From TrEMBL:
One of its GO terms (cellular component) is periplasmic space. The keyword Ribonucleoprotein does not apply. CDD domains: HMA. It is found in: Cell envelope; Periplasm. This is Periplasmic mercury ion-binding protein. InterPro entries: HMA_dom, HMA_dom_sf, MerP, MerP/CopZ. Residues 22-88 form the HMA domain. It holds the Pfam family HMA. Keywords: Mercuric resistance, Mercury, Metal-binding, Periplasm, Signal. It comes from Photobacterium halotolerans.
Length: 91
């Protein structure tokens, strides 16, 4: 996780900028039909600080980009869980 943070920082070369965009991938194993990704995407987009959501239905994955000053992994997991789709961070 720390390694990924450093890589992101280097790519953006945004030293001194407060916002630190982070990307995580969540596993959402209970997505079982083509409508599920829509619900999951909406639940994540509603979280303050989320800037991008990319759900892959076939792989049951949700890639989320967010500002880690505004939200965190737990809030993202809570968002999908509250929408009916428990998720966990993909290692
Ligand atoms: Cu469905």
């Amino acid at each position: 996780m720390k390694k990924r943070l450093i890589t992101t920082g280097l790519l953006l070369t945004t030293f001194g900028v407060i916002a630190k965009p982070q990307t995580i991938t969540l596993e959402v194993p209970t997505m079982n039909c083509p409508v599920c990704p829509i619900t999951v995407t909406k639940s994540l987009e509603k979280v303050n600080g989320v800037t991008d959501v990319e759900v892959k239905f076939e792989e049951r994955l949700a890639k989320v980009t967010f500002d880690d000053e505004m939200t965190n992994t737990k809030a993202l997991i809570d968002a999908t869980t509250n929408a009916g789709y428990p998720s966990l961070v993909k290692e």
